[in-house]
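Hi V.,

Quick status before I head out on leave. The structure for the redesign project is tokenized and pasted below; the design run finished overnight.
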């Protein structure tokens, strides 16, 4: 039965996630917030949708000044039209005056690569962030690509089924960021249903 097998894979991934890597991610975020840094969350496709949701949670529940460049569709598409796809997010970060106190959090299945060219806009954004001294963070799949190699902290979602890398990675990106914003070192406000008296 497909549903049973899929859920069994989910359980295997949950058991195999590197909890130390998650704690490292939390620790860097604690440092960024303590120094008044901003959090920029980036991704393509499902990662972009996750970025929007995660920004909401980081702002509302964890007290971050946080942004998702892909939420500003007018600026993003203007940059794509005028300057090209590859540099669109890096240009957005530059216009936001990304600084060493800030962090960029990447949601990506492959993690980005120059050769072969995979998510070149994320690669350029990470390289720009690194050049500015900002922290680079990630929740990625497979071997994590460039994100895993250059990040200050990165959680790699283990592959348990090569035919389900994307759905598993994207599902666990949501699990990880919800874990992170619920972490006692980061959470400042409870979500409504956790704080409503019964």
């Amino acid at each position: 039965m497909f549903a049973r097998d899929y859920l069994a894979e989910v359980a295997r991934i949950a058991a195999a996630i590197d909890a130390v890597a998650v704690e490292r991610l939390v620790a860097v975020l604690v440092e960024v917030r303590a120094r008044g840094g901003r959090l920029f969350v980036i991704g393509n496709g499902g990662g972009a949708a996750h970025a929007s949701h995660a920004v909401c949670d980081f702002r509302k529940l964890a007290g971050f000044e946080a942004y998702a460049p892909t939420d500003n569709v007018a600026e993003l598409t203007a940059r794509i039209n005028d300057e090209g796809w590859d540099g669109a997010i890096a240009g957005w970060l530059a216009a936001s005056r990304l600084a060493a106190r800030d962090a960029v959090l990447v949601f990506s299945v492959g993690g980005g690569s120059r050769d072969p060219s995979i998510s070149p806009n994320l690669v350029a954004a990470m390289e720009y962030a690194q050049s500015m001294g900002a922290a680079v963070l990630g929740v990625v799949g497979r071997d994590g690509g460039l994100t895993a190699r250059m990040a200050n902290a990165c959680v790699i979602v283990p592959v348990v089924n090569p035919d389900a890398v994307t759905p598993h990675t994207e599902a666990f990106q949501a699990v990880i960021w919800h874990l992170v914003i619920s972490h006692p070192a980061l959470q400042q406000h409870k979500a409504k249903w956790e704080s409503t008296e019964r």
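Above is the designed sequence. The chain has a mean pLDDT of 95.

G. will cover questions while I'm gone.

Best,
W.
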